[in-house]
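User: Reviewer 2 asked us to show a designed sequence for the structure in our supplementary figure. I'm pasting the structure tokens here. Could you produce the per-position amino acids so we can include them in the response letter?
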């Protein structure tokens, strides 16, 4: 596509949307590591220098896309939880259902998982202090909102532990996604030596188990504290 120079706020917003939509389409075809600013510019139909008028770097594009993907996911998850988590069940059963629902919904969003996996090591590096601070402010608000949603289903956690769980969810998702996406060389190694498959992770099952254990520990600690007080 070709664009003429943007002269209004509406046109500038259109350019930003086009850049973000193009980056999202590219991520459906390739991992974050293979996204280049040159290829993004070519696909969106703008010169690289023009893309940089709207985003200061490739990483800035992907961080904004991460925020948008996270917000879309949390909206979907929030809508699914009332049917998935039985409000009359005990807190540990509710925790199990919550962990299962989270893991399954994240597995359905590989682009989001890939962006989360790249966040700390890649996306927060080639970016200005102002841009990364703005992203972090948005991320804190997003994590706080999701923690409040979780608290509505498992009030026994308390607000502080609900926030810790949500922050931990972000970290565990990124780590497990990275480790569950083996390279072609590693896949070949697994096939040649079945003993190595002990290190091969199933993302959904492992994330569900880790989240369930994390929640169980937080609930047990909260219960002990309640009895002691």
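Assistant: Here is a per-position design you can include in the supplement:
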């Amino acid at each position: 596509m070709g664009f003429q120079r943007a002269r209004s706020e509406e046109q500038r917003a259109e350019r930003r949307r086009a850049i973000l939509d193009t980056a999202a389409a590219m991520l459906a075809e390739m991992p974050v590591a293979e996204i280049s600013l040159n290829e993004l510019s070519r696909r969106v139909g703008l010169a690289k220098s023009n893309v940089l008028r709207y985003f200061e770097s490739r990483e800035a594009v992907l961080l904004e896309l991460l925020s948008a993907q996270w917000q879309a996911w949390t909206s979907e998850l929030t809508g699914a939880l009332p049917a998935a988590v039985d409000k009359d069940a005990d807190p540990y059963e509710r925790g199990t259902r919550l962990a299962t629902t989270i893991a399954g919904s994240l597995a359905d969003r590989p682009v989001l998982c890939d962006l989360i996996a790249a966040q700390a090591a890649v996306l927060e590096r080639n970016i200005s202090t102002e841009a990364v601070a703005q992203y972090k402010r948005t991320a804190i608000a997003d994590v706080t909102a999701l923690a409040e949603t979780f608290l509505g289903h498992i009030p026994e956690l308390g607000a502080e532990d609900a926030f810790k769980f949500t922050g931990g969810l972000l970290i565990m998702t990124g780590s497990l996604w990275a480790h569950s996406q083996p390279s072609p060389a590693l896949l070949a190694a697994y096939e040649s030596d079945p003993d190595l498959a002990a290190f091969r992770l199933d993302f959904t099952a492992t994330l569900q188990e880790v989240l369930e254990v994390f929640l169980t520990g937080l609930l047990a600690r909260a219960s002990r504290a309640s009895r002691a007080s």
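For the response letter, you might also mention the following. The chain has two domains: 1-55, 58-228. The longest helix spans residues 58-84.
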